[in-house]
From TrEMBL:
Pfam families: Aldose_epim (PF01263). This is Aldose 1-epimerase. CDD domains: Aldose_epim. It comes from Paenibacillus brevis.
């Protein structure tokens, strides 16, 4: 009989919530950005997400962007830290000096509250939330009253992620999100990166300027990118910090990482609300890459293109936006 359990634990000295569902295990660090830092299949020895080693915890806490599943809100880069919104300009700190941009928003470094954790007859789960109002430090940059809730559920079919955003205030607010998901390549102990190929539901590639901001034009996909879109290719075929439109295939928007040696495929089905992908592989250094589902185009409020086309979503007073994503393994 499959055992489902949720419990308080410690991850390299950091308070955490652990989830168990039979062979599967997951670990949530609520106080470090609401980051699900581990998703494992202990029976097969798979570690799907890039986890920080104990010696890396301080650097991870200072820059929690390339381990686990960091929440970006608002995601990626904003030119000069400027965020035009409904006749006003919000000013974010310029925290990427090389480009003079603001990078990655405010939730991946914030402390989230554990709202609930537990187990049912078919899954274990944890819900973390962050409430922003006039008293919260984030309000100085995003002067809106809102709640973000993130639920991870672990069951026989893998890991489910549910994201919920509600506008608690009176003014229309931006709803721009992404996940800087860091996936191990390989995820199996006995495999190498040469055993693995990746496939993503990318569409067109956005042209980026020297500040890594979209110009509004597209670039032709290379033959390797066509394989990334089609039959699959190593995620380290070249250094990638690339931005693409998302075009669902067979009704789904997903990344597939195939381990031919193990004969299995890790599927990251992100849902069709994510209109863009970022793909970053740390200079093709190997070991991991980040297939990042984005609601919006990078720098969207500063781009003169239709809001729906670039995922410039908003929530009016009392409105809710939500999306569900899933990780699971299937045979090749």
């Amino acid at each position: 009989m499959t055992q489902f359990k949720a419990y308080e634990t410690v991850f390299h000295g950091e308070p955490a919530i652990g989830l168990q569902a039979g062979k599967y295990e997951a670990i949530m660090l609520s106080h470090v950005g609401g980051n699900l830092i581990a998703f494992r299949d202990n029976e097969s020895g798979y570690r799907f997400l890039r986890e920080p080693a104990e010696s890396e915890m301080e650097s991870f806490k200072n820059n929690p962007g390339v381990h686990g599943i960091p929440v970006l809100f608002p995601p990626n880069r904003y030119e000069d830290g400027r965020f035009p919104w409904k006749g006003k300009v919000l000013n974010f700190p310029v925290n990427e000096t090389a480009t003079g941009n603001h990078l990655h928003g405010f939730l991946h470094t914030a402390a989230w509250e554990v709202e609930e954790f537990g187990a049912t007859g078919h899954e274990s789960f944890v819900t973390v939330k962050i409430d922003v109002d006039e008293q919260h430090a984030i309000y100085q940059y995003l002067p809106f009253r809102f709640t973000v809730k993130l639920t991870y559920s672990l069951g026989a079919d893998g890991l489910r992620q549910h994201l919920f955003v509600k506008n608690n205030g009176k003014e229309e607010m931006p709803c721009l999100l992404a996940f800087h998901t860091a996936v191990n390549v390989p995820f199996a102990k006995g495999s190498s990166s040469e055993d693995c190929t990746a496939k993503l539901t990318i569409g067109k590639r956005w042209a980026l300027n020297d500040r890594m901001l979209p110009t509004g034009d597209f670039q032709e996909l290379s033959k390797e990118e066509l394989l990334l879109q089609g039959g699959g290719i190593s995620p380290f075929f070249a250094a990638m910090d690339n931005h693409y439109t998302a075009v669902p295939q067979n009704g789904r928007n997903r990344m597939e990482l195939t381990d031919r040696k193990e004969g299995v495929v890790l599927v990251y089905d992100v849902g069709t609300s994510y209109k863009q992908w970022m793909v970053w592989n740390s200079g093709a250094a190997g070991g991991f890459f980040c297939p990042e589902p984005h609601v919006n185009l990078v720098n969207a409020p500063n781009v003169d293109l239709p809001a729906e086309e670039i995922g410039l979503f908003s929530l009016k007073a009392g409105e809710i936006w939500e999306e569900t994503s899933r990780f699971y393994v299937k045979p090749v």
